[in-house]
Write a structure and sequence with these properties.
Largest sheet: 6 strands, mixed
Shape: flat
Strand order of the largest sheet: 2-1-5-4-3-6
Radius of gyration: 30 Å
Structural class: alpha+beta
Strand content: 5-15%
Number of strands: 6
Order of helices and strands: HHHHHHHHHHHHHHHHEEHEEEEH
Distance between the termini: 62 Å
Helix content: 40-55%
């Protein structure tokens, strides 16, 4: 297998570093000095066997000379370059030469490794901020503990203000106020201690408190999102499948709802024929629904839960109710779906809620250190489970896939306002804990 042209530069750098003549290395590797010279100047590619002989002559492993050894570093440096703000020509700054990253890694491996390590650390800290942000939003213990802290502090301040004003306060009343301050201080100390111990125990990647939907979703994920037991002539009943899952209570009820829906979709859209049609129509839910004369929402569910290895592009799926709360989440790498509400209002998912029954296709760029683009199909389906006199229920679906190009203008979106670094967003609901938005809002408040 041919190696990258930069392998030759690595060979030359190593040979010069150990001060070994080119002719000696060439002789040891069984090639001519002229041929080695061409390799070192990136004018000849080097195969695996020859690379191993040259590496042995230079006293290093073949991996140290192969581009694969630096692939992780190169990826990290590309992420770092993509995360930098755009350079304003008027400021005289020089943009990083992203097209020369491999050359930089080869010429200055020590600096490259340090910078890549720093980038990895920054990424880990950002993920930590996101996790803590979600904990602060959805962790019931943290919510109650912070509420308790604020309540006790307010009580102490109120009592202290009365005592500070002085005036004619009877001695028994003063003693009672002092006792209240003492008791509240002990209470505050206890709550703060519990909170500190709780946070100390929480590991960086510790899971958030499990909700019923988390359990049901995790069960679906363990099945690969495809409930194969519900397919074909020998299909089992959804009730029997879920009974063997070990789920209990509300999580079991949610999983049973998912399984029943999957069984219904499988009956409408037999697997083999549907996969063939999905390939033919490039997994376009609107076209597939039209050809099969089936609801778009059902086709979206089926597309998102096809088995791996079917030769199709991986798809994510988000489903929300009329209140905008996610009721089903199948994420994709780079596009995680928040566990509860508070998602980005710019998602096509919510546009579909305003225009039920019309298929919507949009290109979306999700803000991150290295923004990623997705092609999203959205559709809102209406139901009237209680007839014409009952309420109208809406469920919006968004099927999405990684795609560098798509139709129309790109929607600059995020995951949720609190963790979105986009500074100038017209749909922002609250300041972000990342980026310049937080700093600017804080300065304005000051």
């Amino acid at each position: 297998m041919a190696r990258s042209a930069l392998t030759g530069t690595r060979i030359r750098e190593r040979r010069l570093a150990i001060r070994r003549p080119q002719a000696d290395v060439a002789r040891a590797a069984g090639i001519s000095a002229a041929y080695l010279n061409l390799i070192e100047h990136n004018r000849r590619r080097v195969g695996a066997d020859l690379l191993a002989r040259i590496a042995q002559a230079l006293g290093v492993s073949a991996r140290a000379l192969d581009e694969d050894s630096e692939s992780g570093i190169v990826i990290a440096l590309r992420e770092a370059a993509a995360a930098l703000p755009p350079v304003a020509p008027a400021e005289g700054d020089i943009a990083p030469e992203a097209d020369r990253i491999e050359e930089f890694v080869n010429r200055f491996p020590g600096w490259a490794a340090r910078l890549a390590d720093r980038q990895s650390r920054i990424g880990a800290l950002e993920r930590r901020v996101e996790a803590l942000s979600e904990r602060l939003t959805h962790d019931p213990f943290l919510s109650s503990a912070l509420h308790e802290v604020l309540s006790v502090v307010t009580s102490i301040r109120s009592t202290a203000a009365i005592l500070a004003e002085g005036g004619d306060i009877p001695a028994p009343m003063q003693a009672r106020f002092h006792q209240n301050v003492h008791d509240d201080s002990l209470r505050l100390s206890a709550v703060a201690g519990d909170l500190a111990r709780y946070l100390d125990r929480a590991e960086e990647d510790a899971p958030l408190p499990v909700l019923p939907m988390d359990e049901a979703t995790a069960w679906m994920a363990r099945q690969g999102w495809h409930l194969a037991a519900l397919e074909g002539p020998g299909a089992v009943r959804p009730e029997d499948l879920v009974a063997a899952s070990g789920l209990r209570g509300p999580a079991r009820d949610l999983a049973l709802g998912y399984a029943r829906q999957a069984a219904s979709d499988a009956a409408l859209m037999p697997l083999e024929a549907f996969v063939a049609l999905a390939r033919e129509e490039a997994q376009d839910p609107g076209r597939i629904a039209a050809r099969m004369d089936l609801p778009v929402a059902a086709v979206m569910r089926r597309l998102a839960t096809l088995p791996e290895g079917a030769g199709l592009v991986p798809l994510g799926l988000a489903v929300c109710d009329g209140a905008g709360v996610l009721v089903f989440r199948k994420p994709l790498p780079g596009f995680p779906l928040p566990r509860l509400g508070g998602t980005c209002p710019l998602w096509p998912l919510y546009e579909a809620l305003t225009d039920p029954g019309r298929p919507i296709r949009r290109s979306v760029e999700i803000a991150a250190r290295e923004p990623r683009r997705y092609l999203a199909d959205a559709y809102c389906a209406l139901r009237h489970p209680m007839g014409a006199s009952g309420p109208q229920l809406a469920h919006a679906y968004m099927l999405f896939r990684a795609s560098p190009a798509g139709p129309g203008p790109v929607i600059a979106a995020g995951l949720a306002c609190r963790i979105c670094p986009r500074d100038a967003c017209p749909a922002r609901r609250e300041p972000s804990v990342l980026g310049a938005t937080t700093a600017r809002n804080g300065a304005a408040a000051g």
